[in-house]
Amino acid sequence: EFWRDLGKLGLLGITAKSAYGGTDGSYLDHIIVMEELSRASGSIALSYGAHSNLCLNQIHRNGTEEQKHKYLPK
């Protein structure tokens, strides 16, 4: 449920373009979210960082249009 709440807040696709369901945020926005999550739980922040940078960011930067529409936030 926690991850769904992050999604509802627009934090799971913070650096993705709004055309793909993101929030057009910057990496500074991402760092601020990471910092705040780290205050509560380092492990949750690490998972969030992996999702945002290792997964979502790579699809956003290198994926095909089909992959972007399928896997990026809605």
UniProtKB/TrEMBL annotation:
InterPro entries, per this entry?
Answer: AcylCoA_DH/ox_N (IPR013786), AcylCoA_DH/ox_N_sf (IPR037069), AcylCoA_DH/oxidase_NM_dom_sf (IPR009100)
Example GO molecular function: flavin adenine dinucleotide binding
Q: Name one GO cellular component term.
A: mitochondrion
Biological process terms from the Gene Ontology for this record are: L-leucine catabolic process
Start and end residues of each Acyl-CoA dehydrogenase/oxidase N-terminal domain: 1-74
Parts of the chain that traverse the membrane? none
Q: This protein is called what?
A: Acyl-CoA dehydrogenase/oxidase N-terminal domain-containing protein
Q: Which organism is it from?
A: Bracon brevicornis
